[in-house]
Amino acid sequence: MTEQPKVTLELSQNEFKKLQRFLEIQEQEEEVQKQKEEKDKNTNFVQLYRDNMPEIRWLMTNHGFASSVLFFILEHMDTRNALACSYEVFIDYFGKSRMTIYRAIKLLQENGFIDVLKMGSSNVYIVNSDLAWTDYNSHKKFAKYDGKILVSKKENKDYQYRSQFDRFKALREREGLK
């Protein structure tokens, strides 16, 4: 880093107070601007494109449960239109059978509302970015990355009762770690 030349100023006490006040006002204005920009970011939204409203209307009119599944995915997807979860999450939430969930997801996939990628025993549901989006348009090329993960209580019954500390403690005792 190159050293900047120093400048020495002689100010009267009144001029010094004015300079201090000017700097305080400038800091306050910068903070107000930051708060305004943060407020204007418009987070926690899903935008639907008008071009595909007929398809959404068709889905809602003819396949109510599939539209509920789609809106569940829309509600929980991340800013890249992806949601990773198992069928158990849908079964728990909707109280429907695995076959009913399967048919709804298959209908959504076959009609272009979503794509489904396998992830072990779970799936990653990717909403068609021409249907809905939750981020800048310039980020659409990244739509198939990053995912919010939902887990079912039924699949992870012991999770709420387990403690990482207890497991570390057991490991230490079992292996004689200090």
What does this structure look like?
The mean pLDDT is 81. Strands 3-4-2-6 form a 4-stranded mixed β-sheet. Strands 1-5 form a two-stranded antiparallel ribbon. With 178 residues, it is α+β, with helices and mostly antiparallel strands. A hairpin with a 2-residue loop joins β3 (114-119) and β4 (122-127). The chain has 6 helices and 6 strands. It has a domain at 47-152: Arc Repressor Mutant, subunit A (Orthogonal Bundle). The longest helix is centred in the N-terminal third of the chain and has 28 residues, at 13-40. It is flat. α2 crosses α3.
Quick description:
This protein is of the alpha+beta class and 178 residues long.
Unreliable runs, pLDDT <50, ≥5 residues?
none
| Largest beta-sheet details | 4 strands, mixed
Number of helices: 6
**What is the terminal separation in angstroms?**
45 Å
Large-scale geometry: flat
Helix share of residues?
40-55%
Strand content: 5-15%
CATH architecture of the domain at 47-152: Orthogonal Bundle
Task: Produce the secondary structure layout.
Layout: H1 13-40, E1 47-48, H2 53-62, H3 64-76, E2 82-85, H4 87-94, H5 98-110, E3 114-119, E4 122-127, E5 132-133, E6 148-149, H6 164-175
Parallel strand pairs: 2-6
Antiparallel strand pairs: 1-5, 2-4, 3-4
Helix pairs in contact: 2-3, 3-5
